[in-house]
């Protein structure tokens, strides 16, 4: 997995969306990140680790290529605006759900 800066993550995410436009999907995950790279031990050495500031870890994958970035609290507003614009621009290829009419439903129950 490649850890990128915020701007380069958005450009790579745009490329992933364009590559998967006709077929395929892009999976995006978001979680809280405290800066740890090693797992916390269960018992014994309970070191109290307090992060200096809250961060978010974003990951995106198309099944073959994985990218990620860490967004700090100072940059979250700027990143959220750019991220939401990117999602709006590339979410136009979604399939609409078929709606079943009520008349078909009532005929089936009678």
Q: Could you give a short description of this structure?
A:
With 110 residues, this protein is an alpha+beta fold. 34% of the residues lie in helices and 22% in strands. The N and C termini lie far apart (56 Å).
Question: What top-tier CATH class of the domain at 1-35 and 50-82 fits best?
Answer: Alpha Beta
Mean pLDDT: 84
CATH topology of the domain at 1-35 and 50-82: Signal recognition particle alu RNA binding heterodimer, srp9/1
Return the string of H and E elements. Answer: EHEEEHH
Strand arrangement within the widest β-sheet reads: 1-4-3-2
State the end-to-end CA separation: 56 Å
The total count of strands amounts to 4
Low-confidence spans: pLDDT under 50, at least 5 residues? none
Subcellular location: Cytoplasm
Family: Belongs to the SRP14 family.
Subunit structure: Heterodimer with SRP9; binds RNA as heterodimer. Component of a signal recognition particle (SRP) complex that consists of a 7SL RNA molecule of 300 nucleotides and six protein subunits: SRP72, SRP68, SRP54, SRP19, SRP14 and SRP9.
Pfam families: SRP14
Task: Describe it.
By secondary structure, this protein is an alpha+beta fold. The chain has a domain at 1-35 and 50-82: Signal recognition particle alu RNA binding heterodimer, srp9/1 (2-Layer Sandwich). The chain has helices spanning 6-19, 76-90, 102-109; strands at residues 2-4, 27-33, 55-61, 66-72. It has a four-stranded mixed sheet, with helices on one face. The radius of gyration is 21 Å and the shape is extended. Belongs to the SRP14 family.
């Amino acid at each position: 997995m490649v850890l990128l800066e915020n701007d380069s993550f958005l450009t790579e995410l745009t490329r992933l969306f364009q590559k998967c436009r006709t077929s395929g999907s892009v999976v995006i995950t978001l979680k809280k990140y405290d800066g740890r790279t090693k797992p916390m031990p269960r018992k014994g050495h309970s070191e109290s680790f307090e992060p200096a500031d809250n961060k978010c870890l974003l990951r995106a994958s198309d099944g073959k290529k994985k990218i990620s970035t860490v967004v700090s609290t100072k940059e979250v507003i700027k990143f959220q605006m750019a991220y939401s614009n990117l999602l709006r621009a590339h979410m136009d290829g979604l399939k609409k759900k078929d709606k079943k009419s009520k008349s078909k439903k009532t005929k089936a129950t009678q």
